[in-house]
Design a protein that fits this description.
The complex is a heterodimer. By secondary structure, chain A is of the alpha+beta class. Chain A has 14 helices and eight strands. The radius of gyration of chain A is 35 Å and the shape is elongated. Chain B folds into two domains: 207 residues, Periplasmic binding protein-like II (D-Maltodextrin-Binding Protein, domain 2, 3-Layer(aba) Sandwich), CATH 3.40.190; 160 residues, D-Maltodextrin-Binding Protein, domain 2, CATH 3.40.190. The chains are: A alpha+beta, B alpha/beta.
């Protein structure tokens, strides 16, 4: 912004210097007229650019109330306070990752769309997110990243894929009561007592599952007959609505749990296994040893895959950068496409004639020729990324705002979002300005060079 | 804070059952005197049905006093509404402030008029001592608490309770040891948490702390007479961990508990029916109805069970202050503090009065009567929301202070001492800023 002011002044001086030698001849307008025409712009710049910057710098040297001069304390706080430090760290991640990814994705899109038939349609689609405000994009992605697969698109995709690859287990969350004679083992549940073949059927009562969630094939639980050299038993949902049933006893309304995998162990090795029927009964025949251990296999109880915790503390910044890429890829693509159209075809053709592969053409000819455009896109994005605010504010839920924090958000937060410390807020603003200045200088220089050409 | 106020605003709308007609019959007409009273401007956050109800009460005042009152709603952020008007010297005569902290801030800046003797007499006659103290800054009484939000409620799905064969518990131990396991046995996840919004967690903490450590300690903690590293804080955190540390008690486990915000957690109970209970204040009613439940039938609430000897009653609410020297403003405050005004207001529904002399029978529905009953019973042991009284950097900022630290605790409840230390550090930092301001 400061740089912008400088250029305006330069522009202001040049005409007057130029017109000075001709003043004697009275050919040009008088110098004061130039000043009059410049005045509105200067007043505007002063009031809305220079004064706020100056005041922010001044304000950043005072404490929260604005009465006590604290010197550079606020600037020290930026680097020592854990919250602002996290914001600083995240900003570094943003500035490094986001422009590179956006430029790369834009480049890929631009190069690929050159070759396809419906290029314009494709470009329109990719460019579309630019037409949506950041706030709206944020709301969209907040929903996309929702943890619950019923609400969040990203996890809906992941869980659907995962459920297709491995079928979900039938009884996640079901477990025995503490005093039911079963103990947890390797994700499943093992009967405390050893079981001898031919003895009375073993009862394996489970709870923790809404009766409505039993498979439709489930029938009222029954107790099988004991069989010679076989272990028999029943696995059932030992719960009557209203908690009216007797614990550990098969009550009339209680149904068996079908398709439950029951393992019979001789020592540590699985000797045989069976699957329960619709009434919850199972029979494991032809057992020869004296006693066995009975276990309900772990895969009966595996919790369903719930997708990725996108908005958790670790993934939240990458997730938001993903949303940012979605918004800006179109912008990068359009600029790079324009640059691509300006590349001399002969260079590409010459390379191809010389026997270069498409990858070599891309890597050795296209990219170097495009590099000025790529640089412009990259630097522009850097400036935009430094001041990223809305996406983080909207997408990061309250519990991870601290982990997703960036400088612009922290600036707003400390100034207006609670602590009302406008001293620290101003310091952050000035710090951001300092970070933006190198990129600004670069841009302005480039503009001048272009004009010189 | 933003969400918090939105929650409150919703709650107010939800409780509202408009029955304004009753009022008009009750008031006698005074004939048509020429207007010689004052013009008053009153600002509050209420809109819609709540605004209409309040305007009915204001109409009563107009008839009794002969003054004219104009109502202006402040929008969600009261401070943002009042700030520029104070600068410009155009403050409303009477404003309802949603937090005591805001009152203290304006009082220190000299923007508030102390209550007149008449108002004080009325407050003295109708309010328990605690509310008088709450309205006092540096020995001067400025505010009258007018409209309360009940924040000691656990909302539940009666169907789930019936299914599991349990009744609303009287004690926290019963809740954790009896109700929750019974629900889990029936395959119902006991709690939906709204941990993504830090203020819901501070409300949890306040209820447990108030009941367990008692109102005196609650005040001492607020005044920083005891540190957050005090044993009572650690014990309260341990008590919370009885629920917070058990993934199986919370919908979606720990990730779900921290990742779900308000009012999604209400939807988890009343919309998708994934959980049986959700803790928050009376304003849950609005979200429950949005989720398709009928309050009183398939959305009910019981008061937060006693952790210590007495069940806690934590209230939030709006405090009326006079911002100009206009005498009629004091008259209005005195009027609003009367049981008559409170009763008239209560009859319209959507309103809970901290006024001790507003009869429980005045409320139109059983649910609000129950709330009023619990406020009456608590008497002087009732407390205003702790986090709303703390410096906002500590008690009311997304992603920092108490909100963030309790979220850390919900995420990993293993080390209550460390959390207590973190709270103390945050508190010290926030109060540090605050005391600088005091010195000026």
């Amino acid at each position: 912004m400061a740089q912008g002011g400088d250029t305006a002044e330069h522009r202001g001086q040049e005409p007057s210097e130029l017109s000075a030698p001709t003043a004697a001849g009275r050919l040009g307008p008088p110098p004061w007229l130039g000043a009059v025409f410049l005045l509105p712009a200067l007043v505007f710049l002063g009031a809305f650019m220079l004064y706020p910057i100056g005041y922010s710098a001044w304000r950043s040297l005072f404490d929260a109330s604005g009465d006590t001069f604290v010197g550079l304390d606020n600037y020290v706080t930026i680097f020592t306070n854990p919250d602002t430090f996290i914001a600083l760290r995240n900003n570094v991640i943003w500035v490094v990752v986001a422009p590179i990814v956006v430029t790369a994705v834009g480049l890929v899109f631009a190069v690929l769309t050159e070759r396809i038939r419906w290029a314009t349609a494709f470009k329109i689609v990719v460019f579309m997110p630019m037409a949506i405000s950041f706030l709206a994009s944020g709301v969209i992605f907040r929903l996309v990243y929702e943890q619950d697969p019923d609400r969040g698109l990203a996890n809906a995709v992941l869980t659907t894929v995962s459920d297709t690859v491995s079928a979900p287990s039938p009884y996640p969350g079901a477990s025995p009561r503490d005093d039911a004679g079963l103990h947890p083992a390797e994700g499943g549940y093992t009967l405390d007592a050893e079981v001898a073949p031919g003895q009375d059927p073993v009862l394996l009562p489970l709870v923790g599952l809404p009766p409505d969630d039993l498979p439709s094939e489930a029938e009222p639980a029954t107790v099988p007959e004991p069989q010679e050299s076989a272990i028999t038993g029943t696995v059932w949902l030992d719960f009557t609505p209203g908690a009216e049933g007797t614990q550990g006893v098969i009550d009339p309304d209680e149904r068996g749990m079908p398709q439950m995998r029951v393992e019979v162990l001789d020592g540590d090795a699985v000797a045989a296994e069976a699957v329960t029927g619709p009434d919850g009964t199972f029979v494991v025949p032809e057992l020869t040893a004296d006693t066995y251990t009975v276990r309900l296999a772990a895969d009966n109880f595996t919790e369903p895959y719930r997708g990725v915790n996108w908005l958790g503390p670790t993934l939240v910044t990458p997730a938001i950068i993903g949303a940012y890429v979605w918004v800006w890829a179109g912008f990068a693509m359009v600029l790079i496409s324009a640059g691509l159209a300006a590349i001399p075809r002969e260079a590409l053709e010459a390379a191809r004639v010389d026997g270069a592969t498409e990858w070599q053409v891309f890597r050795r000819v296209t990219v170097p020729l495009l590099s000025p455009v790529l640089l412009v896109v990259f630097v522009t994005l850097m400036i935009y990324v430094l001041k990223i605010f809305d996406l983080v504010f909207v997408i990061a839920p309250g519990d991870v705002q601290r982990d997703a924090n960036v400088l612009a958000l922290e600036m707003w937060r400390v100034s207006f979002g609670g602590p009302n410390d406008q001293g620290l807020g101003s310091a952050l603003a000035i710090f951001l300005l300092v970070l933006v200045i190198p990129a600004m200088i670069f841009q302005v220089r480039r503009f001048r060079q272009e004009r010189a050409q | 804070m933003r969400n918090h106020q939105r929650g409150l605003a919703r709650g107010r709308a939800a409780l509202a059952v408009t029955s304004a007609a009753a009022l008009l019959g009750a008031t006698a007409c005074n004939g048509e005197d020429p207007f010689d009273g004052s013009e008053l401007l009153v600002a509050a956050v209420w809109t819609g049905a709540e605004q209409e109800n309040f305007e009915e009460v204001l109409a009563l005042f107009e008839e009794e006093s002969g003054h004219r009152v104009t109502y202006d709603d402040t929008g969600e952020d009261t401070a943002a509404y009042l700030g520029p008007r104070l600068e410009a010297g155009e403050a409303p005569d009477v404003a309802m402030l949603p937090q005591p902290g805001l009152m203290a801030e304006y009082a220190e800046q000299g923007d508030l008029e102390p209550l007149s003797e008449t108002v004080l007499d009325e407050v003295d006659a109708n309010y328990v001592d605690y509310w008088q103290e709450l309205g006092t800054v540096d020995g001067h009484a400025y505010g009258v608490m007018l409209k309360a939000a009940h924040k000691s409620l656990i909302w539940y799905r009666p169907e789930a309770f019936e299914n599991a064969g349990v009744e609303p518990p009287d004690t926290y131990d019963e809740l954790v040891g009896g109700v929750a396991p019974a629900l889990a046995e029936a395959g119902e996840t006991p709690f939906a948490m709204c941990g993504s919004d830090g203020w819901t967690l501070t409300d949890w903490f306040e209820n447990v702390y108030l009941s367990q450590a008692g109102p005196e300690r609650y005040d001492q903690l607020l005044e920083r007479e005891i540190a957050w590293t005090d044993d009572s804080v650690v014990t309260a955190l341990e008590t919370l961990a009885e629920i917070w540390a058990d993934e199986s008690l919370m919908h979606g486990g720990t990730d779900g508990a921290v990742g779900t915000g308000f009012p999604d957690c209400v939807t988890d109970v009343y919309g998708t029916e994934d959980a049986a209970m959700v803790y928050e204040g009376d304003f849950v009613a609005a979200s429950a109805e949005e989720a398709g439940a009928v309050v009183g039938e398939d959305a009910r609430a019981f008061t937060f069970p006693a952790v210590g000897d007495e069940a806690p009653v934590v209230l939030g609410g709006d405090i009326a202050v006079a911002m100009t020297e206009e005498e009629a403003a004091q008259e209005l405050l005195a009027f609003l503090a009367t049981p008559e005004a409170g009763t008239a207001w209560a009859q319209q529904g959507g309103f809970l009065s901290p006024n001790d002399n507003v009869d429980v029978e005045a409320y139109p529905d059983e649910f609000t009567q129950g709330l009023a009953e619990s406020v009456h019973q608590a008497g002087d042991d009732v407390r205003y929301d702790l986090s709303d009284q703390l410096p906002s950097g500590f008690g009311a900022t997304e992603g920092s202070g108490m909100w963030a630290t309790l979220q850390d605790f919900l995420r990993d409840p293993g080390d209550p001492e460390a959390i207590a230390e973190e709270l103390e550090e945050d508190a010290a930092a926030a109060h540090g800023n605050g005391s600088d301001e005091d010195d000026d």
